[in-house]
């Protein structure tokens, strides 16, 4: 799968599965069982066929060798060529949303490592997968062939155009984000078929489930997401581009009401939180609250932003925070905080910077910090949450702002 989540992410997500060193086949199997038990099922995936496919698919075979110890963390990992393998939850969620059937012919846009195609393989009749990055496409094809996924066919090409010679398709899954759904994909979808696709601006996207009815798509919003952009023709058609010289985040005070999906607009990877209304909100009338009673369980929000270190040497991060009976989790990092992670142009992680931790019981108070933007930074992720701690923590007025210009 070509993306995610950047989905850039999820390198800082709580790593519920412990690192594996000197791994054996049984070690990997146990790690997959733990991933299913502690992440996939608690996050809401219910389809038993999808769950078993995640359990049996060897994700470590689809990541670079030096990252295999992290293969069963619920996080995206870099796979080279500025791309990532999506987090297992996102893969499972998108697969379940596609409602796979044994008779389905599926088109995947964004082969990436081949992991998403491998998850789909036992669930459907055939998978046709397209990758625009030649090196990734060749590597994924070799991996899928070596692991004997015989019903998966791959090619190198621009996913915007689909794969007309094998159309129509029962289902289409897109693992990179265009600004709008490409017309060729609509044309190549069967009447009554489904598309799962993240659509929107670079750092504000929504994952949609689309059904084709009378030649047109009927949309159902699923959740906010952050995928790498669909390159090629889709990117050349993009009308709205982020400004890395003026970094900012969407919905910083949580004043936008969640749609029917229940997810807070502008934020993604939402776990264990409620959107609240109260006269005691430091800014406006709304804020978010994370609550967790089980040590180690994920509870957080994430958002991406563009930042160019050449023009933005420093960022000012600020937030309002209140806590109630918060106790640290199993590690030093398992405590409420504001965490910013920076990435370079190839989406390699450049480090994390923190505001916090926030422990015990504290009234609303504002915390702020000026961060040095690492040399080479081109993107950032800001996240808030409990990160495996127990208790209750609320956040409001979270902002990422430029401090000054580097002299030239």
What keywords describe this structure?
408 residues; Rossmann fold; Jelly Rolls; 2 domains; 7-stranded mixed sheet; 5-stranded antiparallel sheet; disordered N terminus
Layout: helices, strands, pairs:
Blueprint (H helix, E strand, L loop, with lengths): L24 H16 L7 H9 L20 E4 L2 E3 L2 H10 L7 E5 L5 H6 L5 E6 L2 H13 L5 E5 L12 E6 L8 H6 E13 L2 E10 L2 E10 L7 H4 L36 E5 L8 E7 L7 E7 L7 E14 L9 E7 L5 E7 L4 E13 L6 E7 L4 E15 L4
Parallel strand pairs: 3-4, 3-6, 4-5, 6-7
Antiparallel strand pairs: 1-2, 7-8, 8-9, 10-11, 11-18, 12-17, 13-16, 13-18, 14-15, 14-17
Task: Please describe what this structure looks like.
The chain is α+β, with helices and mostly antiparallel strands and 408 residues long. It folds into 2 domains: 212 residues, Vaccinia Virus protein VP39 (Rossmann fold); 132 residues, Jelly Rolls (Sandwich). The chain is built from 7 helices and 18 strands. The strands form 4 sheets. A 7-stranded mixed beta sheet has the order 5-4-3-6-7-8-9. It has a 5-stranded antiparallel beta sheet with strand order 10-11-18-13-16, with no helix packed on it. It has a 4-stranded antiparallel beta sheet with strand order 12-17-14-15, with no helix packed on it. Strand 7 and strand 8 form a beta hairpin. The two termini are 41 Å apart. The N terminus is likely disordered.
């Amino acid at each position: 799968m070509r993306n995610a989540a950047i989905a850039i992410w999820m390198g800082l997500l709580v790593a519920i599965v412990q690192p594996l060193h000197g791994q054996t086949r049984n070690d990997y199997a146990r790690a997959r069982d733990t991933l299913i038990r502690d992440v996939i099922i608690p996050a809401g995936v219910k389809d038993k066929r999808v769950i078993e496919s995640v359990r049996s698919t060897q994700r470590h075979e689809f990541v670079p060798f030096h990252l295999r110890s992290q293969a069963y963390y619920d996080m995206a990992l870099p796979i080279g060529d500025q791309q990532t393998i999506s987090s297992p939850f996102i893969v499972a969620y998108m697969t379940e949303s596609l409602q796979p059937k044994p008779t389905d012919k599926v088109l995947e846009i964004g082969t990436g490592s081949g992991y998403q195609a491998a998850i789909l393989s036992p669930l459907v009749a055939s998978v046709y997968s397209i990758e625009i990055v030649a090196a990734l496409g060749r590597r994924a094809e070799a991996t899928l062939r070596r692991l004997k996924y015989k019903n998966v066919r791959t090619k190198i090409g621009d996913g915007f155009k689909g794969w007309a010679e094998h159309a129509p398709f029962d289902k289409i899954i897109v693992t990179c984000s265009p600004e709008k759904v490409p017309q060729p994909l609509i044309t190549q979808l069967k009447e009554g078929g489904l598309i799962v696709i993240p659509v929107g601006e670079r750092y504000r996207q929504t994952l949609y489930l689309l059904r084709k009815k009378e030649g047109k798509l009927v949309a159902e919003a699923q959740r906010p997401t952050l995928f790498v952009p669909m390159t090629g023709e889709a990117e050349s058609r993009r009308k709205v581009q982020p400004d890395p010289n003026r970094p900012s985040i969407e919905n910083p005070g949580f004043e936008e009401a969640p749609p029917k999906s229940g997810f807070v607009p502008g934020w993604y990877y939402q776990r264990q939180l409620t959107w609240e209304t109260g006269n005691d909100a430091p800014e406006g009338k709304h804020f978010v609250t994370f609550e967790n009673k089980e040590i180690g369980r994920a509870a957080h929000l994430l958002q991406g932003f563009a930042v160019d270190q050449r023009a933005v040497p420093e960022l000012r991060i600020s937030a309002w925070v209140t806590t109630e009976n918060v106790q640290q989790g199993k590690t030093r990092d398992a405590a409420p905080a504001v965490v910013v992670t920076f990435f370079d142009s190839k989406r390699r992680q450049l480090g994390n910077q923190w505001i916090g931790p926030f422990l015990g019981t504290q009234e609303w108070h504002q915390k702020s910090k000026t961060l040095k933007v690492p040399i080479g930074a081109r993107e950032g992720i800001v996240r808030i949450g409990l990160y495996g701690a127990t208790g209750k923590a609320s956040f409001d007025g979270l902002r990422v702002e430029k401090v000054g210009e580097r002299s030239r």
